[in-house]
Amino acid sequence: MVLQQQSSQVASTRQELQQRLEALAGRIGQMNAHVIRLDALGRRVTEMAKLDKGEFNFDTAPALGGPEGIVEGGMVGSPDLSSMLDVLSRQIKDRERQLSVLEGIISTRNLRRQILPGGRPVMQGWISSYFGPRTDPFTGRNAFHRGIDFAAPAGSEVVAVAAGVVTYSKERFGYGKTVEINHGNGYVTRYAHNENLKVKAGDTVKKGDPIAKIGSTGRSTGPHLHFEVLSQGRAVDPMSFVSLKEVQ
Length: 248
Hints:
The chain is α+β, with helices and mostly antiparallel strands and 248 residues long. It has helices at residues 2-48, 78-115, 244-247, and strands spanning 126-129, 132-135, 142-145, 148-151, 157-159, 164-172, 176-184, 187-197, 204-205, 210-214, 224-231, 234-236. The chain is 36% helix and 27% strand. The chain is rod-shaped. The relative contact order is 0.12.
């Protein structure tokens, strides 16, 4: 009688253990599905970011987990499940690491895009003078123009062409009312001959933020914006940063 009761308890315990193992196997199947989705997301983000596929390997087929191969009435071995869990745990950590690095690369790229000078500093107007040698409008002599001029109606809005910190915002000899913005990485932009200034030194600005109104202050023959880009303290041709398609 006692033996029969013990046998019944063993059978019951065995059944309960089998149910737990099967539930654990089902959980492993779900984890494996998550890994597959992470791989798909990683491949998609890599393609969107236009990165070299070799940098982030999301194409390796994930290990197959879960209750596959289990037959009715069969037992799932706990050592096998432990091995599956270890493999999936390593895969998930690897995907997390790759996605974290990928996120950092994209964030850095976006930051660089924000702080690199680019686009028009005015909402309207046309280019009236380019970078390089020209005839000085006041003396008639040959001179070197360190920026480009945008002729536009007085009071037209001037915007920052990149994110940065305002380092100068006041009168400057020859330039009139001037704004200078430091964008980091050695880049500074200068906006001159303004009618009035909307920012002060120490302000932080984002790309497209209004910073001044076009005027004709300083050494100027009429309402326009004189726009300069300096790289490591040296004036460079702003047309390298202003889209030709936008100014035409």
